[in-house]
Every structure is written in C-alpha cells, then in structure tokens.
Amino acid sequence: MENTTTIRSEIEKELKLGGYTFNSFGQATGLNRGIFSAMLNGNPPKPISVRQMDLITKALNYPEGWLYDLYVDECFYDGRPHWKRVKPFLIRCVEIGNLRCVEKVLSRLMEDLNHIPTIFALAEELYEEGKLQEAIPFYECVVENEKYQHSERLAISHYKLFVASIGQDLERNLEAVLRFIPYRNRLPENYHLDALLKLANIYFSLHQWKEVERYADELRNLATTVYKNEIQKRKNINKYRQLETERPLVVYYGQGYLLKGNALELQGMYEKAMEYIDGYADLGWFEGLDELGLEEVELLKLWAEANKLNLKVLMGEKGSLLSYVNFLKKNPLEVLPGLLTIVESAIKHKFSIDAVLSEFSEDIRVFNDSFSLDSGYYQLAPTVDRYADLHYKLAIYYLGNEKIDQGLDSILESLKFYKNINNKTKFVECVALFEKFRKDSTSQHRKNYEFIMEEILDDEKINDVLLVGNKSN
C-alpha cells in the first residue's frame, strides 16, 4: 500500500502548491467533489480510474503519464489485479507509448499464469479493432509465458506477431517468417490459409522459388481439404457456419495454383508452369461464391490469360508479343509484371523492344512517382521489388544494346529501390554492374551513384565515425 499512498500524496502536494480546495479542483478537473474527496480521504480510499488520473494530470499541467509508474500499484490495490483498472490502464499505456508500465503490469500479472487467457483476450480485442501495434506487447506476453507449447492460443499469437512484422524490409520479413514457420500447422484453418498465402508471397518477394513452391503446395492442399469439408458441412444447413478468412476461400485455392506456376516460370520451367494455369483459369464451378468471390474468380481468369501470353513470350514466340502488348494496354495493373516478362524475353532471345518500351514509358514513370498499384491488387513490398527488378533487367537490355546512358540510368533506379526494401543481394549486383561501366558514366551518373552510397553510410551510421577519424588526422 506504500505506493498507493504515494500517488495520493503526490496529488495532495500539488493541491497545496496550487492553493486548490476540493471544490475548486473538482471544477478544474470536472470530477465530482464527493468522488474526489473519497479518492484521497476515504477509509479505505476509493480507487482512482485511469480516466480520472488523466483528468487530474491535465488540470495540474503535467505531461501525459505523469503518475503512471505509481498507478501500477493502483491496479493491484489489495494485492490482486482488478481488471476494470488493469485493462484501461494497459490500453492507455500502449496508446501513449509507455511500454515500461505495460511491462510492469504484465510482469505482476504473470506471477499467476492463469492470467494468460485474459491477456490473450485483450490482444485479440485490440486486433479486431484494427489496433495491431497496440496488441503486440500482449501477444508477446502470451508467447513468452504460455505453458502449453502446442496450444492454439500460442500459435495464433505467433501468427499475429508475424503479421505485425511484415513490411517493406525484405530482410526483416525473412526473420519474421523464420520465427513463425514452426507454428503454422498449429493454427485453426482460417488463419492457416492466410498464413500460407502470406508465406508464399514473402518468399516470392525474396526470390526463393523453391520455398514459394513449398508453401503454394501446402496452400493448395489445405484449400482443397477445407473446400471439401465446407461442401460437406453445407449439407447440414442447421449447423453450417461459414469459415471466416481474410479472403474468399476461392482465392486460397486459386493462388495455390497461381503461385506454384509463377515459381516454376521463374526457374525457367515454362512448360511445366503452363500446366498449372488450368487450375485457376476458370473457377466458376466453385460452390458458395458470393459477389466478392465472383470478382476474385474473374481476376484469376484475367491472370490466367496474362500468364499464358507471358509464358509464350518467354518461350520466344515473337508472334505472341503483339497480343501481350494489347492485353497490357487493356489491363494497366498488369503492365509492371508484363514489362518484366517482355524485357527478360528480349534479353534471352535477343530481339528489340525499343518500340514497346517507348509505348509504356509513361507507365514506368508513374511507377517511379507513386507506386499507384498499391491498392490491394499488389502488396507494396513485392511491387517495389518488381519495379527494381524491371530496372535491373532494363539496364542489362540497354547495356547489351550499347545504350550506355539509359543502362546506367536504370542501374541507378534499381539501386535506389533495392536499398529501400533492403534487398542486399540485388543491391550488390547493381553496384558490380555500375562499377563495370563506371568508365562510360557521366559526371551526373557518378554524382547520383555517390549520393546513394552516402545514404547507405548514413543508414549504417558510419559517416560520423569516418569524419571524426579524418579530423584527427
């Protein structure tokens, strides 16, 4: 009770310094005089709520969280946690970034591991409200303290932390993937489907095609099993409850085929990749499709059409190039992956695509300016990765056709975006390519290149050390 007295002593001290009476301070805070008196003079004192403490803090002109360290004991007023105070206090702490107090409260709560379900429920509540970042400390608490290592609760917590970790930094994405993977098969089916789709997409952005194949296969098999079970459950209408997933079930089924085919394509296995297109080209037979599901079926059909043309172009069928270009004109969202295919085919089969690049020059500029494709159609990190890949391949195309200035421009463009997503392997390849043609570069090329390198040093906090060393010489 020592700290409980201290929080009240701090308030009483401020009242005396400010010359407040209970009545005048009640007016300043908006708190009822009787309630305020009961907080300080009651026997026992009336517990203080987080809202009341914030009102007191504001009235006394102190910064948010002024008494939060002392308030931890208020949450355990008689030695036991009082959830009506603990819960709002924890939420308020994460809102203002006071993780120190969150850790203190959670540490006290974890003296009794029976509180884990309550902490998990709070994390889930925040997650459902879209407050993923606020939920992170509570999922982490579950992960660190869950005593049943094969529990669904533990797997879900790992999954939610995985989702919270995904961003533009490819290296961090890989770290998040490796932490999460051992728990994927312990998830309930709805989360399991979402997790496998995310894993396949992340490995796609990392260019690890065998891993994409692996998780595409798992996704396809799971989606098939879930679909069969859903059909069976629908026969008993009274007990049927639709599986809740982020996307319609048909998406997971179709993406299992799509991602498998794309991974094979990117390993040069074009004919084998073609075999998987039929798996998602026409899914109108899929039962239980709602309006959104029907839209997804049409989108998968569009991708199937694109990928058939894509593979034909990659296999060197020049006659398919015009059809592909016309398709891209009608489907602007396919332009980025489409151009990647066209440039790669031009490099491999040694034909000119200058006219095509001229036709899509404005689209390329738009990608650079805003990445306007990030509308749910593509995820941002893979979009940036593809854009960087496009410029890397354009550099090879231009340099191979002795268009040095354009080639160096493209190298610099790809360098910039590989840096942004922390793709170190491709960044190093671009550096090597630039250095090979440095002797042919203009002063502006070298200036832009040096600027990017300086940014790398700034990011690594090396520049300051070098400057200090130079001054000492």
Describe the protein's architecture and organization.
- This protein is mainly alpha-helical and 473 residues long.
- Helices cover 72% and strands 0% of the residues.
- It has helices spanning 2-18, 22-29, 33-41, 50-59, 68-75, 83-96, 99-109, 116-128, 132-145, 152-165, 170-180, 189-205, 209-234, 249-265, 270-277, 291-314, 319-330, 335-349, 354-359, 361-370, 380-400, 404-420, 424-436, 443-459, 463-472.
In short:
The protein has 473 residues and is an all-alpha fold.
Q: Quickly give the structural class.
A: mainly alpha
Global geometry: globular
Q: Helix amount, in percent?
A: over 70%
Q: Could you report the average pLDDT, rounded to the nearest whole number?
A: 88
Using only C-alpha atoms, the radius of gyration works out to 29 Å
User: How many separate helices?
Assistant: 25
Ranges with pLDDT <50 over ≥5 residues?
Answer: 371-379, 462-473
Q: What is the makeup of the main sheet?
A: none
Q: Please write the string of helix (H) and strand (E) elements.
A: HHHHHHHHHHHHHHHHHHHHHHHHH
β content, as a range? under 5%
The tally of beta strands, per DSSP, is 0
Q: Assembly state here?
A: single chain
What is the terminal separation in angstroms?
61 Å
